[in-house]
Amino acid sequence: MECHHRNLTWEIGLFFPANPPTKRMDLWNIADLVKFNPTTYNLEKVETVERRCNVGGNHYKIQFEGIPGASNAMWMCGASNGVHASVWRNDKLVFDEDLNKCSRDDYIQQVRFKDGVDAPEVDRHS
Questions:
Q1: For the chain, domain boundaries
Q2: Model's pTM, two decimal places?
């Protein structure tokens, strides 16, 4: 996540260790957003991270929520967690999608919000 006051943009994205961001950003490991019991491998908890950013005259709030691949880490997609992003601009929901889940083949790589533009730019990887 990058809140860029000079460019009047706010960016969220999905990066993998083999393809890290080329600039400094506020990052989370999506695997940390889903907790499994280490003994039973059953899902214990789904975490949410919330951040805020002011860009121009707009107030943004984002929530990243983990998406478990399965209720048991040993099942299909169980070890492959995803993340859902919800973004509000001035208390109005403007983006609400899974950035990825289960498979890394099709995911949203970047979402960019610009001051004065209603809809975000969404870059999808497939």
A1: 2-125
A2: 0.82
